[in-house]
Each structure stands twice: as structure tokens, then as C-alpha cells.
Amino acid sequence: MSGNESGGWIGRPVPRVEDDRLLRGNGRYVDDIDLPGAAEAAVLRSPHAHAAIDSVDVTAALRAPGVVAVWTGADVAHLPALLNREELRTPPRLAELLGPRVAMTPMPLLATDKVLYVGQPVAIVFADSRYLAEDALELIDVRYRPLPVLVDPDLALADDAPLLHDDLPDNTAVAVAARVGDPDAAFATAHTVISEEFQAHRYVASPIETRAVAARVDTYSGDLTVWSNTQTPHRVREAIAHTIGLDSETVRVIATDVGGGFGQKGILYVEELLIPYAARELGRPVVWREDRNENLTAASHAREQIHRIELAADAEGRLLAVRDRITVNFGAYNMTGLVVPYNSLCHLLGPYRIPNVDIDVLGVLTNTAFATPYRGAGRPETVFAMERAMDRLAAQLDLEPAELRARNLIGPDDMPYTTGLVDRSGNPQSYDSGDFPELLRRARAKVQVPSAPGPGKRIGVGYAMYIEATGLGPFETARIDIAPSGRVKLAIGAPSQGQGHRTSMAQIAADALGVPLDVIDVVGGDTDRTPFGVGTIASRALVNAGNATHRAGKLVREKALDAAARRLGVPVGELSLTEGVFTTRTPDGPTLALAELTGRAPLPGTSEPTDGRHGTELSETVHFRPPGFAVASGAHAAVVEIDEATGELKILQYVVVHDAGVIVNPLIAEGQVTGGIAQGIGGALYEEMIYGPDGQPRTGTYMDYLVPTSSEIPDLDMDEIHSPSPMNDLGVKGLGEGGAIAPQAVLANAVEDALRPFGVVVRRGPLSPSRIRALLRTAPAATH
Q1: 145 exposed, middle or buried (CB, 10 Å; 0-12, 13-18, 19+)?
Q2: φ and ψ at 491, to 5 degrees?
Q3: pLDDT (0 to 100) of residue 617
Q4: Cα atoms in the 13 Å half-sphere on the side-chain side of 47
Q5: Under DSSP, is residue 523 helix (H, G, I), strand (E, B) or coil?
């Protein structure tokens, strides 16, 4: 048992209750929704990275067999353009303190005057089947006039660079800077200064289930129901209502089973607006499913950043200052504003004490697919830069890299620790709890280095540490209802994308209520079940929905105890509710099952109140608002073997020690960490979305875009410590993204350590065999 040791359900490694259904093929994904008579949609996408649209002729497509309708930009130009309003919003306090620049770039539902990236929607066909719709796409005649293409964000910032958006003065999407202390003086007087440039390369979330949307209008009520594998159903509902001009209460969005989202499904897309609009306009259900090429080239990308970073230290290796100039490639549209850039800014310091800070971030628009958060959301990129810089500083000071880290870690006695920066909400950035030295100590103790590598093989050891501010607000909702049968219905605003909410949230509710786990039914992401909600993004579901569930359960328990006391004629203080049964303190006292109490009107002639608050309608809705961030943390270590001749990298050992406060379910927690590390290893060694200088994606299929399988992921040597968060009742911290934050950095550090005799410096990934061979060929001390 981990985390909560006081008994109950929290802390138990309960097997996931949803797995039996999913493994038997009884999941309910968007593709499983049966909508008789549905039209299917296919999207015509731009083959150009930047071009003016001179004309679009759909005459032949309209005559194609089975075609119901064909729309171009002119057909939907009267609808509002797509704008991810909530993601683009700058908190007032942050705006006041830092004055960030956030450019608005509304995206037309279908391109009209010009296209800005390969894959931008230009037209949409609705037909009796997807096959017929695809055939009709080929009959649409679009005349393009190519325009200059910008792929490199540095070139996009040049004074003479062509503009992507004519209403903006330049190609800057976001600009924000932060300073703490006197960094210039610290650099001027430092014993050692290192200056480096590191690049986090572009890659893609690539969930096993691509995006999908289905919509139907109820012919009786006129209400619109939308099924989507979104991570944010309430935001999708509001966007649909705004776009079509409906009242929100007439739109229901249901997040079905989701086959992975990882942030890519956490934003709004034009398809989520076009399909519901089509269902109303065409008078029949409509379905759209993304294919894999669309997912790789036209869904959101992530990670691409350039860090020009400097560290200053004294003679003992204690950090005096950091300076970082961060350039983020936003792609063609600013979809999420400060989210990724500011995450990078306020996570750069990590677990280290750095008194002087100078960070400047620019988000740049280019003719590539738009970039948005992906598991880690700006943290893997900035951890790659900082942890690489720490290893370069260690080499300059002739210190062992782990020792340099140990000398600079914030200690547990310093908690809560303020960095001098401000967090995403605009409040002073504070680490609420943690023991960073213990994380590193445990990781170092686990590392085992082979004594004698084989001929032509090099062994390297790498370390990387991170912090993650989890539990992003502004709120999340939980509603608990006790049904007449005695079953507990728990509805939360955050849908599951594979995290096991139906198990972990049930564990929290079972403890709060005092009922068995198997009487609890959990529904997430149905806007009719919880009218208000935010969603599953930013490692926030457990912190926010979990604590809302906990508080709702406690309130329902109080109501149930009050009603049972009146029913049994005993003082409420004499009653307890355990395993769904009310009992008294006296051994022979009366008992009452929860099912006997619910779903019944007050008995005639009794004193039972009917005011709702103390009646027998046992339900409560809670909106939990976190007072601040719960900061999770971790230390990773890796031992790798490099074949000098082939460049092949083998992970001999991968160590992770993490701290996510109280662990609700250790099995789920281990799965979450493992999944994050697997995706991090994919980015470190295999995955890269490559564009040519003409803006054409060169990795548009799995023939070119390499995703690791289970055989490429090593067994993990895992450990954990528990620093409960004082920011919420349960003491929990977010866990879903943590595993993905450090792998790129730790593996790059291990590779550089292995190839140190050659003078190799690793400045970007992925560390494929060909890239490692190139590093060896161009190294200062290369021998052939």
C-alpha cells in the first residue's frame, strides 16, 4: 500500500474496473456509435504550405455518386472563426505583472483567401459513405497561387520575412519575459559561465485512436448531441453553441471512451464545429473520422523549441544565474497562447536554487501545422535545455553531474519555496512540498554500471530532474447521487483518456461516503451529467475532480447520516456509515442499509424534513477550486550502451524516482509513469516530424514516422516518495505527465557521457543510430 496508510480504499492497488470491458472489445468509442442514416464526411486539405486560393470549383464533386453536400469556405464564411478562447486567455494578474503579448489568429472553419500549412481544411464533402466522400474529394478543383514559405522560426522573425497573417505586424504569436534578481551582475562576477544552444525537435502525440466526431439532432426536441473523443467536452459544447448560435443547454457533448489524447485532443478543432453544424443543416446525423495521415500532418504538433541558454556558477559549482532565450515554433496559428511558452519559462529552474534569472520567450508563426500542448506541455523541452546545460557545466567544472545537481537542490526544509517567478495564474511561484535531495539520492543508489563493456561499445550514465506544477484550475465538478437501489452515481467533468478514472475516482468516493467500491458507477465528460466542467488536461484531473469527488462524498455522507438518524430515532453522533450500512455504537442497536434510505418520500407522521438539504434525496454537486499548484517532482537516471560502429543505442537500465504526493492507486500510478516514459523515450530516440524547406511534411505515415513498440521500452526500475500536497484535502498531485518530462534529457546526458572521450556534445534529438554516427564523425576527437 502506498500513499494513504490509514486504511480504506485510497492507497490500495485496486485493478482497474474498466479493463475487463475494454479488453473484451466492449469499449464505446466514437466509431462505435450507431447512427442510422448518418452521412460521412471527408476533408479536402491543402497540399501547399502557403498559397493564395484563386478559386474552388465543386461542380463535379456535387454530381458524384452518394454525395449529399460539398462545402467550401464561402459556404461557412458567415460562421465565427475558430478561437480557443479559454486557452488564449491571459490571467489578469499575469497580464498586470509581465504584460505578455498574445496575438489572436482566428482560424476559418474552411480556408477562403489563402492556406497557411499543408493539411489546412479547404473543403468538406458529405456522402453516404466515407469511400464515396473520398472519391468526391478528388473531383474538387482548387486553383492555388504559391506564396513564400517559412519553416524556420528564426527566419520568420527577420524584418523582411513575409507575414503569415496580414492583420499582424510580424510573425510573433507570443512574447513574454521574466527577471529575478540581478542576472547581469551574477554573470559578470561568476567563476564559470557556460553558453549553449539546444533544440527540442518537433514530434506528434500520435494516439492509437485518431480524432473523431459524430453529431445528431433530436427530431422531437431539436437538441443537438455530439459525441467526441475530446479531453474538454464542456469547452467543445460552448464553442459549438457559440459557432452555431444555440443556447448551451440545447447542446450535449459526450466524451466517449478515448483511445489516448495526450493533449492533442485537449484543444478545439474546426471539425468539431463543422460536423455539428452539418447535422443541423443536412437534417441527418453526420460522422467524421480522422485517418492516420491526417493525424500526423494536420492534427496539432508539439515540442519544437530552441533554447539559447547560459548558466553561471561559483567555483564550488553553486548556481548563481540562468539566462535563456527561448524560441517556440507555434506553426501557422496561435491555438493555445501562453500555455506552452509559459510552462517552459516557469519550469526552467526545476528543483534548483537559482537566485538570478533572465528568461525571454518568443512564440513564432511559421508555415507548419499548429503546435499545442503534448504530454508535458513545455516541460520536456525546458528540462532538456536545463539538464543538458547542467551536464555541460559539470564538465566545465570537472564535477560528477549528479554531484553538481546535489549541490544545488532545494531542500525539504525550504518548503514551501518561492522562486521569485510568478506562476501561470499570476501568483508568486511556490513549490508546496517535496524532497528533491531524496529523489536524487535514491536514483543514484539504484544505478548499476557494467564494469567491462564489449569491444567497440561505450557505456554512459545520465541524470535528469524535474518539477511539475499540477492541478491547474480554475475548477472541476463532481456530482454524487445515491440511486433508489443504493448504487452511487458519480459524474465528473473530466473525461478519461485511459487514466482509469472509473477506478481511482470510485476509490475516493468510496472512502468519502463509506460504501463498497463495487456500488459506485463513474461517468466522466458528459455535459448533461455535469453542466459545468473544464476537462482532462494539464495533470489536473485527480487534483481537481478527485477533490471535488471527496468533498461531494463527505457532504452526501453528512446528509445520509442525518436522514438515517431521524429514521432510526437515534442521535446522529451515535451513527456510522461503513460498507453502505448505518450502525450504532451500541452492539445491539438498529441498523439500516443505505438502499433502504434512498428514493423514498418522507414518511407520514414523522419529523423528517422536506427541505432538500436534510431530506432523503441524497445528492451533492461540488466545484473544487484549487488555491494553488500542487508540485510533483522526479529524478530519472539511465545507463546506456553505444555501439561505435553502428550508432545503435541500448538502454541497459532506466531508473525513475517520483513524488506525486498521496497515491490513490499504485497500479494506476505505475501505469501512468510507465506510459509517460515510453512516450518520452519515443521522442528521445525515434520520433520526429520533419518538414522540408518547402513546408512539405516528410514523415506523414508510419513508414517514415517511427513510433516505439513495447519491445523498445526497457523494464523500469521504479521507486517513489510521498510528500503530500497541502494545497488540497487529499494531499494528491498530478501524475499523468510526469513520466514524459525527463526521458529526452536523461538519455541525451547518458549518450554524451558515453561519447565524452570523443568530445561529443548532444544538442538535439532524436538520438537515432544515424544521428549518433554523425556525432561521432564530426566530433573533435573522432578517430576512424
Answers
A1: exposed
A2: -115, 130
A3: 77
A4: 7
A5: strand
